[in-house]
From TrEMBL:
Record's keyword annotation contains Signal: yes
InterPro entries: Sialidase_sf
Name under which the protein is recorded: Sialidase family protein
Residues forming coiled coils: none
Signal peptide per UniProt: 1-21
Keyword terms, alphabetized: Glycosidase, Hydrolase, Signal
Lineage of the species this protein comes from: Bacteria, Bacillati, Actinomycetota, Actinomycetes, Micromonosporales
GO molecular function, one term: hydrolase activity, acting on glycosyl bonds
Enzyme Commission code(s) on record: 3.2.1.-
Length: 345
């Protein structure tokens, strides 16, 4: 089941590093169907956005550039494997050379194949652009599932040694509902075997939706949800840090829930950003009180000390509430990179 969500310009200010908060006007990017938006600010200051759209030839990654107060379509990632389904795409600009890929190369990754039926073999696929998203070439398959279990929600980083790292959720591991894994590459073409980052202590735990950013203090922060936990903390957002973007500690460890002083916490679909002033921003689909009650006003968590402590600020879009449980579940499945209010629309 898919639910269609509008993509609004006002969200971008809270998803790109260094952006300034603006009033949420809800201006559509365009009039078509769009899902799972992800924005990135390039080194030259331009803001690019990717969304999943559904043209007649099959799902594709639509690329937009912010210009003149709005967005205009500048490119398309038309992966042939995406004809059997496309989910949870991302954009990443290389901060340094990786193999033959020069600094400034724009990378796009997506999970493909979820509509392939009972014999599906989902994959995470990687494409590259050297002209700010106007044209794209296929680079590699980061990983392919060996079972019908899915691979979801890719995220990219470059470690201190100059290796490209891909993080994603993996439903194909024996005895586990879902785990977070990573693969590394020295050239963006050949990838290592998957290694676990977070499994959780119980087989039914479902860590997912990885969001990774380098912190102002030089460490890397991983924010993720753990569904299958049960109770009021089901799908609560948790976090851990790494000194080198690849060593994250014991995969079975269940990290603390990210909370603020009054006990409020976030659940489902975390998204991270850092700003030029050193702030770390974290937002998710829902905000709950310390007792687990859903709160009507969404909130964004902000940290001034590289994720050691958090406080709440207003979210970019205000809505009446998170909606029925069925809508929340669908949003969690199909909007892994949206801020909370967009998923609720």
């Amino acid at each position: 089941m898919r639910r269609v969500f509008g993509v609004v310009v006002s969200l971008v200010a809270f998803l790109v590093p260094g952006a300034v908060a603006v009033a949420a006007t809800g201006t559509p990017v365009d009039g078509g169907t769009a899902m799972c938006p992800r924005a990135v600010r390039l080194a030259d200051g331009r803001v690019l956005l990717t969304v999943t759209q559904f043209p007649p030839g099959g799902p594709a990654g639509a690329i937009y550039e912010h210009a003149g107060g709005g967005f205009r379509r500048v490119g398309t990632v038309a992966d042939p494997d995406a004809r059997q389904g496309l989910c949870c795409t991302t954009l990443f600009e290389l901060p340094r050379q990786v193999g033959a890929l020069g600094a400034g190369t724009l990378l796009w990754a997506g999970a493909v194949g979820q509509d392939g039926g009972g014999e599906r073999r989902m994959a995470v696929r990687l494409w590259a652009s050297t002209d700010a998203g106007r044209s794209w070439r296929f680079l590699s398959t980061v990983a392919r599932s060996g079972t019908s279990g899915g691979l979801w929600e890719p995220e990219l980083a470059v470690d201190p040694g100059g290796r490209l790292v891909a993080y994603f959720a993996d439903e194909s591991q024996p005895g586990r509902s879902q785990v977070l894994v990573q693969a590394v590459s020295t050239d963006g073409v050949t990838w290592s075997a998957r290694t676990p980052i977070v499994t959780g202590p119980q087989p039914g735990h479902r860590p997912g939706m990885p969001a990774v950013r380098r912190l102002p203090d030089g460490r890397w922060l991983l924010a993720y949800e753990v569904c299958g936990f049960g109770g009021q903390y089901d799908c609560a957002v948790r976090s851990r840090t790494s000194a080198d973007a690849t060593n994250w500690g014991d995969p079975a460890r269940l990290d603390p829930v990210v909370t603020i002083a009054d006990g409020r916490y976030l659940t489902a679909t975390p998204t991270l950003a850092t700003t030029a002033t050193g702030r770390v921003l974290l937002i998710a689909q829902r905000v709950r009180a310390a007792n687990g009650t859903d709160l009507p006003a969404p909130a964004m968590f902000t940290s001034l000390d590289s994720g050691r402590s958090w406080y709440a600020t207003a979210a970019p879009v205000v809505v009446a509430g998170p909606g029925p449980a069925s809508a929340r579940t669908t949003a969690r499945s199909w909007c892994p990179r949206l801020t909370a209010p967009a998923c609720w629309r």
